[in-house]
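Morning, I've got a small favour to ask if you have a moment. Here's the protein in full, and shout if anything looks odd to you:
***
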Amino acid sequence: MTVVHTAFGIGIKPVRIRCLVSVRENIRIEKGRSEVAKGYLVGTYRSVQDPERLAEYGALAKPALEAAGGRILARGGRVTGFELGIAERTVLVEFPSYAAALAAYRSASYQQAVAVLGDTVRRDVRVVEGLD
């Protein structure tokens, strides 16, 4: 998409730039708007040995992630694995930015929740930057 500058009559294409806001983040400039790419915390559980500890973790993790701006999009619903994917409990949490997702994971309140799990679960957790 090209936006034509009205004063000069030249075409301007939207670009993705890196800049410093309060932290380094991807900014998308288009039609006079700027948007920070969202961040996602994705967790896939390979095994759960103690469901009670998982429930304790959830009681602490949910408010910790929400306080950091997280919105739980999926948690423990139906999962179908394809290729090498496993069909186990999966959690997806959306944040306003990649930096916010990293900060939430590293926060003391969320790490307190993680400590409750101990070695009772095996899971794969990652933070992913969205496209927009």
